[in-house]
Amino acid sequence: MSDLLSIGLSGLAASKTQLSITGHNISNVNTPGYSRQDATQATRHPQFSGAGYIGSGTTLVDIRRTYSEFLTTQLRSSTALNSDVEAYKSQISQLDSLLAGSTTGITPSLQSFFSALQTAAEDPANIPARQLVLAESEGLARRFNTVYDRLTEQNSFVNKQMTAVTDQVNRLAGNIGRLNDSIAIAAANGQQPNDLLDARDEAVRELSKYIGVTVVPQDDSSFNLFVGSGQPLVVGSSVSRLEVVPGLGDPNRHEVQFVSGGSRQTITTQITGGELGGLIRYREEVLDTTLNSLGRLALVVSDQVNTQLGQGLDLKGQVGSALFGNFNDPALADLRARAFSDNPSLNTATPADAALDISDTSLLTTSDYRLEYDGTQYRARRLSDGAPITVTPNAGPPAHLTFADANGRDQGFTVRISGTPVDGDNFILQPTRRGATDISAVLDQADQLAFAAPLRAQAELQNAGNGVIGQPSIDNVQDPLVPADLKGMSPLSLSYAAPVAPATTGTFTLTAPAGVTVSPATLSITPGQSNTLSYTLEFGGSTVDVSQTFSGRPAAGDTFTLEYNQSGVSDNRNALKLVDLQTKQTVGVDNTVVGSGFSLTDGYGELVERVGTLTAQARMDSDATGAILKQAQDNRDSLSAVNLDEEAANLIKFEQYYNASAQIIQVARSMFDTLISTFR
């Protein structure tokens, strides 16, 4: 009877525990990361009797959670990947709307500017048309400024969000460290603390939303967590932390540092996964390049327009004034190159600093550069692709450094170093980063727009033939255009000599004023066909390459004259060249490849297309990673989540088990009472 009572009591205890576990499962049905628990029962050691071994009841061997390390790891990695993509998509979608918008992008302002130039070119003496050009140039500059401001606001948001995310990472890492300690202590008793393990798994999963981590289980049931390229964020109960700080080279571009004890290590480029990885990836792949592309376009616009205006004459016969501000102003040049805040030379009496001057906007890339000094020479690399850049010192004056890649392509800028650099000094070079905010319209006098060309050609009235000479074009940039030199070259006479049989080509003899060098002095043409006359004039400090067309059949002795365009009020030839800048290949030119580069319109279109393509890809990635995450969650839930229907069935089963065990105890009691009654 005592054996029967013991058996009943063991069943009663087992069923009570099973009911408690079932209730625990039900109460945690909505607890994130909770894994369903169940108990494992086994029979007690049987007792030997003369008839054989008799069972002695049941006992609970283990209370375990329904858990798969593989499914949990899959869910964790899917969470990190999806959070990365979602953070990236959120930012790039805003950028795509900004650049491609009909009211927010650059294209409408660029088109309006060139439309105003076209209107003014049709009537170059019309002051209201010229005023419209000034208004549209100001609108274009402000549009560049506004888009730049929106991009810098987004950059500031990324910086703040990085700080907020690292705060969450540090909070969760500390929580995981404390759970590690509790789990290790509990596991030392020989059994796993299921609820603590679930809490830690959920904390690690939540951490994966913010940053990609590598989890390494340890023998004492603790987890070691690693980030970046293997930096130990959590080792047992010891926890390091992440900190977001202004960049050493660019304080506006924050970096992530791994802080362990008293040591610091910048790991920004090594972070992948999670929201932090997505923000950093967006900044590196899209935001930085967009800022540089937009800045390069602004620099090319201001440079090409100003240069072309400087090749013409205004309504007063003066050399044209610049429409946009000087991008090589010393104050702006200083902002394009920055010394690292930890440079060794900062501790000397003459710390090294740098200034970057744009030498050729058409050759600029959309990359930043890093310049290093090793005590004897400079080394540089292009940050967009890591390509090494050859640095060549130039004695000047002023002394400067020039840059070219392995193919000999000039990078379009030079750098001036001031102070005394020492071994270990570093500089960040950003040729185009500020171009869109630095552009400004500075011309406010419409009559100073140089729409007229500086030279003109005409035929003598006494000419007997029907030869027609085209208006001259100066093919090389005059920097600066010197009217006194052009006047000194005038007039240039072109006298025609007819061909003598059997020759079919006639000859122009070029006669210039004293002191003017003409090369070549004679030009051959084919009468009756379209010909191109090309020659060079040198006088004073100017060298002018002239080209013009010639057609018709001139008579022997016919003379044509080239002279300074003193009163070209109605001349629109330079205005037409300004209009042609819209389609001229002036952006991203490779001086080692003939015909490379693209136009201003195509330059911005390429930027919009690239961002649009990346945005579409991000949306597809979001759908894909979202589906993968859902599948991973479903797979984990199918094994570990609580099923209320199943638990309800267990309640009934274990309740019946409890009642049956209680009945065994009741039977044992009745038997004992009967036995006692027999001896009364």
What does this structure look like?
The mean pLDDT is about 95. This protein is elongated. It is of the alpha+beta class and about 675 residues long. The strands form 7 sheets. The protein has an 8-stranded antiparallel beta sheet with strand order 12-19-14-15-16-17-18-13. Strands 20-29-23-24-26 form a 5-stranded antiparallel beta sheet. Strands 21, 22, 25, 27 and 28 form a 5-stranded antiparallel beta sheet that branches. It contains 12 helices and 29 strands. A hairpin with a 7-residue loop joins strand 9 (about 240-245) and strand 10 (about 255-260). Among the domains are: about 1-65 and about 640-680, no CATH class; about 70-290 and about 600-635, no CATH class; about 455-565, no CATH class.
Helix count from the secondary structure assignment? 12
Radius of gyration: 41 Å
- Measure the end-to-end span: 19 Å
The share of residues in extended strands comes to 15-25%
Low-confidence stretches: none
Helix content: 40-55%
Structural class: alpha+beta
How many strands in all? 29
Q: Using the alpha-carbon principal axes, give the shape.
A: elongated
Strand line-up in the sheet with most strands: 12-19-14-15-16-17-18-13
Mean pLDDT reading: 94
- Outline the biggest β-sheet: 8 strands, antiparallel
